[in-house]
Write a structure and sequence with these properties.
heterodimer; A: about 220 residues; about 80% helix; B: about 300 residues; alpha/beta; Rossmann fold; 2 domains; 6-stranded mixed beta sheet; elongated; disordered N terminus
Chain lengths: ~220, ~300
């Protein structure tokens, strides 16, 4: 049964997942071509100087990609469920509602995390080939909140979409936007390095929020 | 009126038959608006029961409560003995559900949806599903979202039949269907339910279709259940009466519903029988020579009982 449930999620999201993966791949190719060109044109010393003394991060085009990826995956998975209240069919499947929700959200969350890890690995393999280890670790800490924002965006989409009333969807959307905004307050490289607890706490908070929406849907709040 | 006394329910006590669904003392409000208060009913095994009511009387609310999508303000519904709000997977396997508008996973094609549902139901029988699909001449890879409303209804029906469930719950199955598809749906479902001894609980706003399908009718009015009884018993007892008279009798002294008088023509409904009506009218000094008793279709009886407004 779980396999069938995941099959349904796969049918809904496969083209969107492919689009997200292709967009990520193209963006990474573009970023490395641009940095490689800069190194050839102005010299590696100058690029190093820009990174170390002027605190510039050379891959800032990546900033909103995880956010958009998370939102797109969340919407592609849950908009079909809430359209015509189709989620009633899903909750009528002979499984516990908790099991259904956990597997549905788990499917999206794990796929998204997997995709982000691949992108993360690609980015840092490339940076590692060009720069010193200190710059690599600094870069990792710079992009980490962006990827966390992608996961939060995914969970926020579930939180907002599954909520049964528009009256509550709007505050839910505002709360989610406010929380995600925290991860984009500073562009300074590694600015969020001391805040992994905040990122973890935010992720847990979004998971609790989405369960609240599931509960409200289940009891038929109108 | 004896309509209330003929139901399966007597002052909240439900007869001890083998009931698939039991709702007791059900009360629900949307905000301050009362949908119903102290609603009691039971659906016996093997019956096809139609829930009839005007818009806004709580038909879909009842379906939502039964399937655990809505918590009533008070009271309780049980399906196969379990509280409707906390149905176990094994009970859900026994219940096939058709949502209003034949909603299905429209992002799937029919081969995918058949494969998907088959995994959830151990008694899944794909024969009726493909039989219906072959009638529609739909390619297995055609997406449900690209089908007409009528074709989608047949996909939803095929899924319900293939589930081989003990109880079928259908919310407004006739919505959006043209007469041909409605007839196909009703005939197929009726034959299946009677042949396989299935219990069916169905709502529809097109009552003509219900007459061909259901054994028992439940009629909801604003805030209460007016009756639950076999359709043939209802139609045998509930009649329309017409007569002419310049004066109107004191309706309050008569067992009638929704009396109307336009000029000298009177029309009213009752299940008391012609003799009782004649006796009542004579007691009030009316001539009853031109009193006509008329048999009704289910739709006419429904309108007679609930009123035109």
């Amino acid at each position: 049964m779980i396999k069938a449930l995941l099959y349904k999620e796969w049918i809904k999201t496969r083209w969107f997942l492919l689009a997200i993966a292709i967009a990520g791949l193209l963006l990474h190719i573009y970023m490395f071509m641009r940095v490689g060109r800069s190194i050839r044109l102005v010299g590696a010393e100058h690029i190093w100087d820009v990174i170390i003394t002027r605190n510039q991060f050379l891959f800032s085009e990546l900033k909103y990609l995880p956010l958009l990826s998370g939102a797109l995956l969340g919407l592609s998975q849950f908009i079909p469920e809430i359209t015509n209240r189709r989620i009633k069919l899903t909750f009528h499947l002979p499984l516990r509602e908790k099991t259904i929700t956990t597997w549905m959200v788990g499917f999206g969350f794990i796929l998204l995390t997997g995709l982000f890890l691949v992108q993360f690995a690609g980015l840092f393999t490339g940076i590692h080939l060009l720069f010193a280890p200190e710059i690599v670790s600094n870069g990792a800490l710079t992009v980490l909140p962006w990827y966390v924002a992608g996961l939060w965006a995914y969970l926020a989409c579930v939180f907002v979409a599954v909520e049964p009333t528009w009256r509550m969807r709007i505050p839910n959307l505002l709360i989610s936007t406010g929380l995600i905004r925290i991860l984009f307050l500073s562009d300074f490289p590694a600015a969020y390095a001391p805040m992994p607890v905040l990122m973890l706490a935010g992720t847990i908070l979004f998971v609790l929020f989405l369960w609240l929406s599931v509960f409200r849907l289940k009891v038929g709040r109108q | 009126m004896i309509l209330y006394g003929q139901t399966l329910i007597n002052k909240g006590k439900i007869q001890t038959m083998e009931n698939v669904i039991e709702c007791r003392h059900l009360t629900h409000y949307y905000g301050d608006r009362c949908i119903y208060e102290d609603l009691n009913f039971a659906i016996p095994k093997g019956r096809i029961v139609g829930l009839l009511g005007k818009n806004g009387t709580g038909k879909t609310t009842t379906i939502n409560i039964l399937n655990g999508y809505l918590q009533p303000k008070s009271g309780e519904c049980r399906m196969f003995g379990q509280n409707a709000g906390r149905l176990s997977p094994s009970v859900k396997q026994k219940v096939a559900l058709l949502l209003e508008g034949h909603v299905q996973y429209s992002f799937m094609n029919i081969a995918q949806i058949e494969k998907f549902y088959a995994s959830f139901y151990p008694l899944w029988d794909k024969v009726p599903f493909w039989e219906l699909m072959n009638k529609l001449k739909i390619a297995p890879k055609q997406r449900i979202s690209r089908m007409s409303c009528g074709q989608r209804s047949q996909v939803a029906l095929g899924i319900i039949l293939a589930q081989n469930a003990d109880l079928l719950i259908l919310d407004d199955f006739s919505m959006g269907l043209d007469p041909g598809y409605r007839r196909l749906f009703v005939d197929y479902l009726s034959e299946y339910a009677h042949a396989e001894d299935k219990t069916v609980f169905v709502t529809s706003h097109i009552i003509q279709d219900m007459e061909r399908l259901i054994d028992d009718c439940m009629i909801l009015d604003y805030g209460k259940l007016l009756l639950q009884q076999p359709v043939d018993r209802f139609l045998n007892s509930f009649k329309r009466y017409r007569m002419t008279s310049l004066l109107a009798p004191n309706w309050k002294k008569m067992p009638v519903v929704h009396p109307e008088k336009i000029r000298n023509k009177m029309e009213f409904y009752s299940d008391a029988g012609k003799q009782t009506i004649v006796q009542n009218l004579k007691e009030q000094g009316f001539e009853t020579n031109d009193l006509q008793e008329e048999s009704l279709t289910l739709e006419e009886a429904f309108i007679g009982l609930t009123g035109k407004y």
